[in-house]
């Protein structure tokens, strides 16, 4: 049964009026957002904001066609991640960190990400408090993030600012190279030994020759005008003064005598 004449109001303010044989009369603020079916009195309100919350009343000039409803519009959340424990200076394989996603609203769903990847529960990663809290134990360097949460409730959604964990790790994957890269080096030539590793903070380097510590430190060992007695094992020690871990790499360098110039003895007749 159609409703011949009536109005829709929001918080007692009329925004739509209709009567027979005429299109609905809608106030400007609603003109682009309202679709109305006069046969059923159905109102479709689009692009809602929190300002649209409140009581909506349908009133026909026949009392049989009077009803009201309450609409609650949940706006986008202001989200943040709050560390529950220290999120800086974490040592890989040692420490645990907990983060909580703070949001207001009802029927909230929390979803966590590490970069573009979903965070899933495993033996190290746990979610609690209806997925509000993320706990990572024995942290790895790959856990650093950026970590963020997305919150939704079917009406709106929001994304928290990202947080990047400061995870201290290494040294690991140490590498030792000799330049120039040849099978043997001539006496009198120059050699450069270079050491590198994955480490945060950057590793400190110490060198040794045949198990004797050398005075030169740093990631490079420069050997100028080498002699044959410098043939032997060269070791690079990489040390992280935060994780208190170290790694070593050793290479063998061969120094051979200088090439003698060609000499000819005798007399020509």
TrEMBL record:
Keywords: Disulfide bond, Glycoprotein, Immunoglobulin domain, Signal
Disulfide bond recorded as keyword: yes
PROSITE patterns from the UniProt entry: IG_LIKE
Residue ranges of domain Ig-like in the record: 63-166, 171-250
Keyword Signal appears in the UniProt entry: yes
UniProt cross-references to SUPFAM superfamilies, sorted A to Z: Immunoglobulin (SSF48726)
Gene3D superfamilies: Immunoglobulins
PANTHER family: CARCINOEMBRYONIC ANTIGEN-RELATED CELL ADHESION MOLECULE 5-RELATED, CARCINOEMBRYONIC ANTIGEN-RELATED CELL ADHESION MOLECULE 8
Protein name: Ig-like domain-containing protein
Provenance organism: Scleropages formosus (Asian bonytongue)
């Amino acid at each position: 049964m159609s409703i011949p004449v009536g109005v829709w109001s929001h918080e007692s303010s009329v925004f739509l009026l209709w009567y027979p044989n005429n299109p609905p009369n809608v106030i400007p603020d609603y003109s682009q957002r309202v679709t109305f079916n006069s046969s059923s009195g159905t109102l479709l309100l689009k692009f809602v904001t929190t300002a649209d919350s409140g009581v909506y009343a349908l009133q026909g000039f026949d009392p049989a066609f009077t009803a009201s409803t309450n609409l609650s519009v949940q706006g986008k959340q202001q989200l943040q991640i709050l560390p529950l424990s220290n999120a800086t200076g974490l040592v890989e394989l040692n420490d645990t960190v907990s983060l909580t996603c703070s949001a207001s609203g009802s029927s909230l769903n929390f979803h966590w990400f590490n970069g573009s990847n979903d965070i899933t529960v495993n033996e190290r990663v746990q979610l609690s408090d209806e997925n509000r809290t993320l706990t990572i134990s024995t942290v790895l360097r790959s856990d650093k993030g950026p970590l963020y949460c997305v919150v939704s409730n079917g009406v709106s959604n929001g994304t928290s600012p990202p947080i990047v964990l400061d995870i201290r790790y290494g040294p690991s994957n140490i590498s030792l190279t000799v330049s120039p890269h040849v099978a043997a080096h001539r006496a009198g030539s120059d050699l450069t030994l270079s050491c590198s590793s994955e480490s945060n903070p950057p590793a400190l380097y110490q060198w040794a020759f045949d198990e004797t510590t050398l005075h030169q430190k740093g990631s490079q060992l420069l050997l100028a005008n080498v002699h044959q007695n410098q043939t032997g094992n060269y070791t690079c020690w990489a040390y992280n003064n935060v994780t208190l871990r170290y790694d070593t790499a050793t290479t063998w360098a061969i120094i051979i005598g200088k090439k003698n110039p060609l000499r000819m003895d005798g007399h020509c007749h």
